[in-house]
Amino acid sequence: MIRLYDLAGARDDCRFSPNCWPVRMALLHKGLQFETVPWRFTEKDAIAFSGQGSVPVLVDGEHTVFEKWAIAEYLEDAYPHKPSLFGGPGGRAPAYFVTNWTVSVVSAGVIRLILSDIFNVIHGKDKEYFRKTREQRFGMTLEAVTDGRDKRVEEFRNSLQPLRASLARSPHLSGEAPAWTDYVVFGPFQWARSVSHFPLLTPDDPVFAWRERMIQLFNREADKVHVLEK
Amino acid sequence: MIRLYDLAGARDDCRFSPNCWPVRMALLHKGLQFETVPWRFTEKDAIAFSGQGSVPVLVDGEHTVFEKWAIAEYLEDAYPHKPSLFGGPGGRAPAYFVTNWTVSVVSAGVIRLILSDIFNVIHGKDKEYFRKTREQRFGMTLEAVTDGRDKRVEEFRNSLQPLRASLARSPHLSGEAPAWTDYVVFGPFQWARSVSHFPLLTPDDPVFAWRERMIQLFNREADKVHVLEK
Fold first, then answer.
1. Which of A29, A48, A78 is the endpoint of a domain?
2. Residue B31 · residue B221 · CB < 8 Å
């Protein structure tokens, strides 16, 4: 059976990685059997076989694949007769663009709004590592990163305009039915609701309604884990 | 023959619209015969038949289509046996996302860097209309909008990161060969080089090299008009 190493918090059912969630949704989209293995930031030994220091890491028989986009392409190519993640070959390059947009706009925006909350849900053994590496990356304390978020969230919401405009045309970013572009953008939103009460979106935002549709997919998979923002 | 109403400046061969250029490239991509009709901002009567006050407006026999995305979809559906603009059905929804990203990030960024330069190339009869409508929209003079651009251009370059990341994987945004997503993002870059000497990009930027590839397409179509930034 396929194995997905999946970032976990103190609770085994706290699964908050914005990069693992798209993979999990992609596996469900493809209808593949899989199990997730809870993994903590400091358990480097557990995934050393992959040559990586972070998740997602996916093991499918003899194949070890890491990094969300590489995994998406792997699943598409290894299981071509299962439902397509990209809607066919022409969808692959623009889906990669959406993946890049997610990383540099959505995830980069979300982390500045929830970083200090992540600290509260992670495993005790990860706390020192997490604080040290993240404070080094941002050049300030975790708490300083999220300071003033009530005001700054407006800028984040504005940055979602391309997504909002697309949702005016179809219920999903990938069109009538969801596919990879939806799963990858959903990642940072599921990340936020897994670790924080902070409201990223207002209920009147079409992105809010889309996120609800995403939560309902696959028998509400995104609610089968522990979440803070309902 | 297909007719494209195309925004023109004082010179008939100054064709600077970021919204008309993607259509022009799409027509060439499809290998369709067409002629462009130079149109100025204040020539509302000339396109009144379309119900629109701005271009692009495309007339194909009995069909009148306006707005760049609607025209792209029209061409794809009306000429299904010509080369696809979206690489097949799965590419359409993410291509729409890229179109929305272009509007709210690339075009919105470019206009704040070149607005006052546009004023210099437009037809004399458009100048009063242009200054009045744009100064109303921005709530400041044309000159104030572009003030400080030498510093602000950094932020614009940063906003191109999703494009840059995609170009690390393939020579075009649409993959190995160019298609709609490339044409639509190229629009604002061709706009800038048509009206301004201001360097939007640095030569070491992968986006710069991509823009060069776009300029070379279709026997250097983008250089057959009058441009300021070479």
1. A78
2. no
